[in-house]
Amino acid sequence: MSKSFLGSFCLTEFQTSRETYNGLNFSSELLPSLGAKTNNRATKLRRHIVSPFDPRYRAWEMFLILLVVYSAWITPFECAFLAYKQDVLYIFDNIVNGFFAVDIVLTFFVAYLDSHSYLLIDDPKRIAVRYLSSWFAFDVCSTIPFQFINILFTDHNGGLCFNLLSMLRLWRLRRVSSLFARLEKDIRFNYFWTRCVKLISVTMFAVHCAGCFNYMIADRYPDEKRTWIGAVYPHFKHMRLWDKYVTALYWSIVTLTTTGYGDLHAENPREMLFDIFYMLFNLGLTSYLIGNMTNLVVHWTCRTSNFRDTIAAAAEFTKRNQLPPKIQEQMLSHICLNFKTEGLKQQETLNGLPKAIRSSIAHYLFYPIVQNVDLFRGVSQDFLFQLVTEMEAEYYPPRQDVILQNEAPTDAYILVSGSVDFIAKVNGQDQIIGKASTGDMFGEIGILCEKPEPFGVLTTEVCQVLRLDKTTFLNILRANPEDERRVMNNLYQKLKFWRSFDIEGQQDPSLILQNCLDLDPKEDSNYTPDNLCEDISNYSRFMATNELPSEIDANYGQESLHVAVQKGHIEMVRTMLERGDQNHANNGIYDLMITYENGKKQTGATNSGTITSCKKGAYATSSSSIPSTTGEVTRLTKRVTIHINSRKHDNSRKELKKLIILPDSVEELLKIAGQIFGDNDLTKVVNAENAEIDDLSVVRDGDHLFLLPNPCEGIDCHSR
């Protein structure tokens, strides 16, 4: 313990703040009333008023506690064993009474805490009224020197009356009760041992008082031999003081413990009556002691007991449901780790604090870790601050599943300590496809891509992680568009190392597709244009001859397909897809291709096919909705650019064009064009080669269509 007992309770500074309002002082250490205003100025009470939290007053209280302990022991002892006081003891008792008399006067100048408003009152009148109406009379009676009055009026023969009046000094014990109440609330002292000291003190005081009172009854009984002590020691009054006191304590403790050896017992009605009340008191005291000790012991061992019960319940559950040994081991490991780390968990403590304090604590604990996560590279500090305030710390034992493959994404995790393996099923077997160490993040792919988790996560040692809820994460992203873009760009860079990742199913283009595909192509250093063309050519040759090597089949074809989409080679993507490469074609690549092409068209960029043309009617298999083995296909959305000439007032012509989604029929196309250009005379559709189109199924995505009125017989009419 860093501070001594005296320093902990006497010298501790209590910094308070105050604003005077109608004679009241507001303490920041106390609960203010609703609407009360406080500030950070130091407490300044009225003149001659002492704060109850002043360290000097605390030291004075501790000094009085020592005097109370002395008074509690000496008062019953003097009443029973000392008919005449020695001069030294008499003088010391009066000095003690003098200190308590000073405390009575001092109490009139000590501010007090109002029990209704929880305000510190420093008004002298209110302090005096409160003290006079409460404990003043008892304090005065416990301080009156009755021994001195006894000497003045009875010449040392005051008898039992003055002795009983001296017992009023036991009123001072209320200070000890307040001390123990304060000790029990002070976390610097062990609660168990504080309670034990209190219970032992109560027991010893009861034994001391009972022994003294029982001896006093025997000492004042007319027949010495008909007393509990006189029956054993006929001349007990001539015994040494120490022997008489030990004998009295022996009888008291034997009776208290209900042992009852029978060697010392009541011999007359007075003693019998006292024994009756003493044993009734013992019933209550024993119940109090047993109840408190039982509660302390149960509280001390409840964690272990609850742990054993939880283990037994888990074992019974696994046995009843016939769970495999792996799951059973994970359950028991998780329960054991929770037991070991129960004192380390922070979330229970944080939940009971105000939002601002929780945010400050989370920022201090988690910010240095989160700012080094690759996914959050380049984001703003405000964005990180919003994230860390929503994170929760958790522990996982070794060989524990944190995320299961293909489960619905619910949380993202940042690894604070330990390591984990990324597990995926390959040919029905679990294989390690990657690892993560301190500072890495996992679980974010499923959340940001709105798809099942692409791989499982298994701990290899005891791990501490920061957990971030999916809904909270997405809400923070959407509230910070610039940081959202950076996060998605960082995710794209990460996905380049996971070529088999499927992003199909993402419903919000602004969240991942658009952000990922708006990257500067220069950032992708894995492929140059020449290398890409070479790979695409090789891939087309392999596909045409069905000679793609099996050992590079999955990686080679799939990577070429991904890169072709990222670089905007739409025609090559169609060629590869129409080849029916179901093994290494990414099922979500169709949505990715359309989204990327949309972005390129909207910015005015036009991409020409580099390898081959698309076959009639581009189709793609979607494994997310239709199994690839059924042969069913879903039509791709086609976009075309329509052209029309508009005549100006000076008889010159101006070409108008519009990018639209290709409708299902020529009639619908002419109707849409008429609404767009305001010309209802359009009757013919031709392509760039001046070939008339009667069926829109022959139109490819990205074609240019020319709409002509009836007099025009071809595209050449545009130049007239």
From TrEMBL:
Q: SMART domains, alphabetically? A: cNMP (SM00100)
Q: So which domain of life are we looking at?
A: Eukaryota
Q: Under what name is this protein listed?
A: Potassium channel
Note the subunit structure.
The potassium channel is composed of a homo- or heterotetrameric complex of pore-forming subunits.
Query: What membrane topology is annotated for this entry?
Result: Multi-pass membrane protein
Question: Which key words are in the record?
Answer: ANK repeat, Ion channel, Ion transport, Membrane, Potassium, Potassium channel, Potassium transport, Transmembrane, Transmembrane helix, Transport, Voltage-gated channel
| Principal location listed in the UniProt entry | membrane
List residues of the Cyclic nucleotide-binding domain.
375-494
Report the transmembrane regions from the record: 63-83, 95-115, 192-217, 245-264, 276-300
| Written domain comment of the UniProt record | The KHA domain (rich in hydrophobic and acidic residues) present in the C-terminal part is likely to be important for tetramerization.
* A Pfam family this chain is assigned to: Ion_trans
Can you tell me which family this protein belongs to? Belongs to the potassium channel family. Plant (TC 1.A.1.4) subfamily.
Question: What is the protein's known function?
Answer: Potassium channel.
One GO molecular function term of this record is: voltage-gated potassium channel activity
User: In the UniProt record, does the keyword DNA damage occur?
Assistant: no
